[in-house]
Amino acid sequence: MPNDTDIFETLRLELRRGSLILAVLGQLRAEHYGYTLRKALADAGVEIDEGALYPMLRRLEAQGLLTSEWREEERRNKRFYRLSDEGRAVLDRLVDEWAALNTSVDAILRETK
Amino acid sequence: MNDLIDRYLAAVGRELPEKQRADIVAELRDELLSTIEAREEGLGRAMTEKELVAELRAFGHPLAVAGRYRRVQHLIGPDVFPFWWAGLRAALTIVTAIYVTIFVLTVVGAGGLSPGLDGMIPDLSWALVTTFGAVTLFCMGMERWGKVGDLARWSPAQLPPAGEKTRGRFELAVEVIGGVVMLAWWFGLFRFRDVAPSGDVQLALAPVWKAWFWPIAFYFAYELAANVVALTRPGLVSLNRVLQAARYLLVAGITAGVLQADQLILVTVSARTPEEALRVHNLFETGARVGLIAMVPMFIWLAGIELWRLSRQTGQAPKPAAAA
């Protein structure tokens, strides 16, 4: 039977899952390759493991929200990602949605405190 | 050191689609080397082999790492899962009902099933595993190529009314299979074991049953069809009630017709006196007649109940519409 910690951890992961895409898209307003993207997100307080990040980047690129190119940097080939025009438009809409949801949930939580 | 990384990335690469393999592996190599360099910078020395092994293990099992790039991440997703579960329960119920029927037939049948037929029937465990596989494969296909809407086409009006006592799926499945057996028996494809209490008494159906052969054959076919409808369309409550009521009336009518005959059963008794033979004959004849006489009002009563329920149901139907 799951204990309170397991339940909290499961709910925490569910809560974070949707917002990770928003954080990744937001961070890619500036160009990054995988490793620096992960570091930048971690520095901002959003931890994401590489096993989840790289397939997500591929998926977002396949959906046309990101563009990427291979370039040499620090003596190694790296794949740089950046938000596409379509990605920027989708991100703007998602940010509005996020803000509205945040306001609503905040209001509910304040009322029930 | 690099050998371990190469082996790890090769293992990941083997699980990736060929078109994307080189690209993904190159990106993962950069991620791994960047992580290792950062760790070594923090440590102020090169990583040991043990530390590298721990780093690769933390990166993930090659199958898991490669698996995250696959388009298909599950065989049956949450949308199809409820249909897979319901379909599986229904299919396993039907298969179990078939095996229960086969078991009963081997007990009451004359010598059981024919060897040819017997050889065609797999073990129950094999049949259950095959059913599980078939339902799962079908739902995997729906998950991948179909539309969940195809599985989920429904209307609230087709659902059985709340609180209605309906026959269970297993009961209906057994009745359907029983219907097939009765039809096979009536057309002479299957013979029941002789139910006479002793070896010197033989029972056979009187000529009246031959005269009623086709109405009774029609009844068995009708009963089978009505049960199939009830099993596959439980939401068509009114239709099922009408079919059921008609079925009861058919039994009552046919039974009343058969009862017009003077003789229902032919009893052959060997090695007895004529008086004793007559007594045995009368015993079976009276028993059969009393049983059939009791069936007529009972089935008319059952038909009446179905029709009464139908009228109540039809009378209640407009209420929600009026309220709306």
**Could you tell me the mean pLDDT of chain B?**
83
- Which term fits the overall shape of chain A? globular
Count of alpha/pi helices of chain B: 14
User: Could you give the count of β-strands of chain A?
Assistant: 3
Instruction: Give a count of the beta strands of chain B, DSSP E runs of length 2 or more.
Output: 2
Order of helices and strands of chain B: HHHHHHHHHEHHHEHH
The amount of helix of chain A comes to 55-70%
Instruction: Kindly report the spatial arrangement of strands forming the biggest sheet of chain B.
Output: 1-2
Which strand-content bin applies to the residues of chain A? 15-25%
> Helix and strand succession of chain A?
HEHHEEH
Strand arrangement across the biggest beta sheet of chain A:
1-3-2
Could you characterize what this model shows?
The complex is a heterodimer of chains A (113) and B (324). Chain A is 65% helix and 16% strand. Chain A is an alpha+beta fold and 113 residues long. Chain A has a three-stranded antiparallel β-sheet. The two termini of chain A are 30 Å apart. By secondary structure, chain B is mainly α. Chain B is built from 14 helices and two strands, in the order αααααααααβαααβαα. Chain B is elongated and about 115 Å long. The N and C termini of chain B lie far apart (75 Å). At the A-B interface, helix 2, helix 3 and strand 3 of A face helix 2 of B.
Please outline what is shown here.
Chain A is α+β, with helices and mostly antiparallel strands and about 110 residues long. In chain A, about 65% of the residues lie in helices and about 15% in strands.
